[in-house]
From TrEMBL:
Taxon lineage: Bacteria, Pseudomonadati, Pseudomonadota, Betaproteobacteria, Burkholderiales
This protein's name: Uncharacterized protein
Native organism: Piscinibacter gummiphilus
Pfam families, per database record: DpnII-MboI
């Protein structure tokens, strides 16, 4: 449990660092405030990782991380490079390799999987807000309304979130609804009112499943909004598993009718 909590804390630091770095890195110089915050979280991630590997009695790993920290302090904690779609923090990516290795070693799953769980947890807690008529004139009536409201929620947690992002390397005919570069996650929204629509959406996923594969994006989350209970979340998850997409491709079902009552 201590290892899991430590890894979760390091992941959070890396996510916060990327959020502040990416919020101003698209064609605009990084502000002093954002650079300071990003630097703080990168250094904190280094320190927490050093504490963890020392606790686990991994002297060789400790020396490697310590050497990386010395180099990072010399070159700059917010040193970056341009990736295929967006710039990235060099030291954050190097630290992720250690975190992923420790996570696998202790049977905690990949960092990607934990990031997916974080997003799903945020959406489950916020589902009531989607249908809150004190905030909106009515419950969602179409996919674009679900899309806009969910992005408003996620933007509070992931400052680099992009709506209808343009991918530098288009993936088949797939055009994602949202993208979160800092955790390399794409999101697709679906609006369902009947079993017939559920079948159509399932067929669409099955037909285009190969198009969702890309080395530039680790995670893909389908957000299924139902106006009434149509298809259980386990059924959508099973569908994705049958497609052979892997554990970093997932679905979450949000039911609007019960929350709107």
């Amino acid at each position: 449990m201590q290892v899991k909590a430590a890894i979760s804390s390091i992941e959070k630091c890396l996510r916060e660092a990327s959020n502040h770095f990416l919020s101003d890195s698209y064609g605009e110089p990084l502000t002093d405030d954002d650079e300071a915050v990003a630097s703080y979280y990168i250094e904190r991630a280094f320190i927490e990782l050093l504490v963890l590997v020392e606790h686990l009695n991994l002297p060789s790993t400790y020396r490697r991380v310590e050497s990386l920290l010395e180099q990072a302090l010399k070159d700059g904690l917010t040193k970056s490079k341009m990736g295929s779609d967006e710039p990235y923090l060099v030291w954050a990516e190097k630290l992720r390799m250690f975190v992923d290795g420790l996570s696998e070693l202790h049977g905690l799953g990949e960092t990607d999987a934990s990031e997916m769980r974080d997003i799903k947890s945020i959406l489950r807690r916020a589902v009531y807000m989607l249908c809150d008529t004190t905030l909106f004139a009515d419950v969602p009536k179409k996919e674009s309304e679900v899309h806009a409201r969910i992005e408003g929620i996620l933007k509070c947690h992931y400052q680099d979130l992009k709506s209808k992002p343009a991918l530098s390397k288009p993936i088949k005919k797939f055009e994602p609804d949202s993208a979160i570069p800092s955790i390399k996650t794409l999101i697709e929204y679906k609006f369902i009112t009947s079993k017939a629509e559920a079948k159509r959406v399932a067929d669409e996923i099955l037909a285009d499943v190969s198009g969702y594969r890309s080395p530039d994006w680790r995670n893909l989350l389908f957000v299924i909004y139902e106006t009434e209970r149509v298809m259980h979340e386990d059924e959508w998850t099973a569908l994705l598993q049958e497609c052979g997409l892997g554990r970093n491709y997932d679905a979450i079902v949000l039911s609007g009718s019960a929350k709107a009552a």
